[in-house]
Amino acid sequence: MVAVSVWDRVVGQDAVVGELTEAARVTGAARPDNHAWLLLGPAGSGRSVAALAFAAALQCENSQSPGCGRCHSCTTTLAGTHPDVRRVVPEGLSIGVDVARDLVRAAASAPAVGRVRILVVEDADRLTEQAGNALLKALEEPAAHTVFVLCAPSDEDVLPTVRSRCRIVRLRVPGAASVAALLVREGAEPAVAAFVGRAAQGHVGRARWLAADEGARRRRAEVLKLPGRLRSPAECLAAAADLVDAAAEEARAATAARDQDEMAALRSAYGAGATSGPAPARSGGSARSSTGAGRASSRSGGGRALLARGAAGAVKELETAQKRRGKRTQLDALDRALIDLAGWYRDVLVQQLGGGAELIHPDQQAQTRLLSERSSAAMTLRRIEAVLACREALGANASPLLAVESLMLDLH
Ligand SMILES: [Zn+2]
User: What's the domain range around 378?
Assistant: First the structure.
């Protein structure tokens, strides 16, 4: 593999890399046969990394191996400064119709320097229905020079009308060895890389995070101690409360600073507008993009009362959005913990069945072996199913505490 290719960071996806490289190669002087692509893959599979690499390959000046990683087009695309590559990265929970309309306008304008104009929408699953419908027109009758690259976890997460207009590319969960190799290329110790590559179970971001953050490794260790604590119903309930609290704490730590910054920016924007001077640029609603995100909102002598009402409304809207984001972050943290737990019981099962498959959590082998000797494979299977059922319940909006309590009692 060429050391600097844009595909280097697309881990364990040989088939996808082959397909996208080929599409970029046939582009030649025109755009690829397909003007709308949908990259599907679970969290951590690297779908947004693949989308950016594809954008670079489409702009690449090296027609033999598109995505060379060395030319000006490749490097500016990866750096987020290529004028013809625009990325929409949702910061909140949804991508609204305003952002979609901006994209439609951008899709209609000619590329500034490149062959094609590329619009990347990460987390297209967060397009509201209205936003999806606004995009449809551009997806149906695209300008000749425009390529859309949408990313989402799975088929069901995308509006069928949007999906049916896209060429679908499926990413798989990368293997532990590919993840470890990436981390080594990024400078991690081989032993650490091998350990977190397995522990992260194919989630590249999680592997990086475990490799870099001692707090994350400590939280993982705490989670994996839970099975040993479930000796009585009372202890099960206590373990459930601890797990839910830890997820809430993790979410608070992850979002507090950003919430404060956003609120300060909002207040100062309205504060500045309330006195005098030019109208402040709006921050682009629920999404930002690497080029031309902001839109100036003009305000013509409508009076301060109107502005004050607007400010109060905007603050309330932001508070609601932040609350939703906090909840989502907490659920994500809880879900990661459950994936770790499922892996722990899977290791128990591996030892019960023999056959020598590699363990996900080799550092826990003393504990998992103990349980493998004291229980049956059928019991372990039921426990794994209970963990997966809990993940599903949380995905369907069950109360986190109730769902986790019920799980801990099942694992008991
Ligand atoms: Zn290049």
Answer: 214-267+318-412
Q: What is the pLDDT of residue 288?
A: 44
Rounded to the nearest whole angstrom, what is the distance from the C-alpha of residue 69 to the centroid of ligand 1?
5
Query: Would you place residue 21 in the very low, low, confident or very high pLDDT band (cuts 50, 70, 90)?
Result: very high
Domain count within the chain: 2
Query: Which tens digits make up the pLDDT trace of 317-359?
Result: 888 888 878 888 888 889 989 999 999 999 999 999 998 888 9
Kindly give the distance from the C-alpha atom of residue 26 to the centroid of ligand 1, in angstroms, as a whole number.
Answer: 15
Ligand 1 centre to CA of 74 (Å) is 4
Q: Return the residue matching tokens 């190799």.
A: 181
Residue 243 sits in the same domain as residue 106: no
Distance 24 CA to ligand 1 centre (A): 11
Which residues have a Cβ under 8 Å from the Cβ of 297 and sit 6 or more positions away? 279, 280, 281, 282
For residue 23, report the distance from its CA to the centre of ligand 1, in Å.
15
Characterize the bridge pairing of strands 117-121 and 85-90: parallel
Say how many Å lie between the CA of residue 75 and the centre of ligand 1.
7
Which range among 14-18, 143-147, 233-237 shows the weakest confidence by mean pLDDT? 143-147
Q: Which of 112, 140, 170 is the last residue of a domain?
A: 170
The pLDDT-based confidence of 368 (bands split at 50, 70, 90) is very high
Q: How far is the CA of 77 from the centre of ligand 1 (A)?
A: 9
* Side chain identity at residue 87, one-letter code: R
